[in-house]
Amino acid sequence: MLVNSLLENVRRYTALTEEEETQFCTLFTVKSLKRKETLLQAGTVCQHEYYVKSGCLRTYFLDTRGLEHNIYFAIEDWWISDLYSRTHAAPSLVNIVAVEDSELYQVSHLDLEEFMRKTPAMERFFRLSYQQSLVSQHLRSLQMLSMSGQERYVHFREQYPQLVNRIPQKHIATFLGLTPQFFNTIHSKVLRAE
């Protein structure tokens, strides 16, 4: 049986029977990644959902100029995947790469869909998880439109203090829609103000 953290994550939104928990855990395999190792390459179809047991990953896409834009980070007790690619069996538009050595629990899309079909409580878990994720993305979009670069960085530091020292500043900069140079100026101002 998998580490309790996975089941505790599920229990936040729903309750499974002991038998369902056991069945759910049997769907997962362990996947280890070294720092900078790719989990998902743009252009390939994402076929798994991943739960982060340890480590840190980032999701990014490359624009037409070849510049990286970070759109999501995941650390312990968070989930990561390319929902678009997985849902539509379409080539991924993003890359997922380990920022640190990471250990993940992976479950195949087909196994997960079948389990959710049989287990309404599990479908509830993912519906609520995806709703929370959608709300976070919605708020992030509004912040990008309404906050200055410095306000976005201060908010990021307050909202995700566990990420600030684990993710290189250049990745935080692109996540916030800032150039590395402008980010360095803002970062210095914020540190002086603390």
From TrEMBL:
<dbReference type="Pfam" id="PF00027">
    <property type="entry name" value="cNMP_binding"/>
</dbReference>
<feature type="domain" description="Cyclic nucleotide-binding">
    <location>
        <begin position="31"/>
        <end position="118"/>
    </location>
</feature>
<dbReference type="InterPro" id="IPR000595">
    <property type="entry name" value="cNMP-bd_dom"/>
</dbReference>
<dbReference type="InterPro" id="IPR018490">
    <property type="entry name" value="cNMP-bd_dom_sf"/>
</dbReference>
<dbReference type="InterPro" id="IPR014710">
    <property type="entry name" value="RmlC-like_jellyroll"/>
</dbReference>
<protein>
    <submittedName>
        <fullName>Crp/Fnr family transcriptional regulator</fullName>
    </submittedName>
</protein>
